[in-house]
Amino acid sequence: MPDFLDNGRVYYNPVDYAMHHIGGTWKTPILWRLRNQTLRYSELKKSLDHISHKMLTTQLHELEENGFVTRTAYATVPPKVEYALTEKGQRAIQVIDAIRAYGMELMREAGIDPDIVFKKREA
């Protein structure tokens, strides 16, 4: 039996609810890249290998709609749009950082050195 319903979607526990908002293939990497800086759409797109324009746009829209990021559009030519974390997004980073630390711990236990694997980029 589900714990509760929100916007017509069934959730079975708080973890399920949280992961719906920050989980998936792209939301966590998007939030992680915004953790210390405001980025333009093109900068986010460039930093995320293999994400399509449609997927990035959709994920950013959902993150904005759910209060994790802000979108600031400037009336310039060409158009300039920037994304930044909200306070809610910053709180999500604390959770993501804990998961990241746990993932690095698991890698070490498996004999994988995360410092070598992620030498050129931040995990």
From TrEMBL:
Please provide, alphabetically and separated by semicolons, the GO molecular function terms listed in this UniProt record.
DNA binding
Which Pfam families does the protein's record reference?
Answer: HxlR (PF01638)
What sections of the protein cross the membrane?
A: none
Q: Which residues form the HTH hxlR-type domain?
A: 13-111
Key words of the record:
DNA-binding, Transcription, Transcription regulation
Q: Give the source's domain of life in one word.
A: Bacteria
The molecule here is called Helix-turn-helix transcriptional regulator
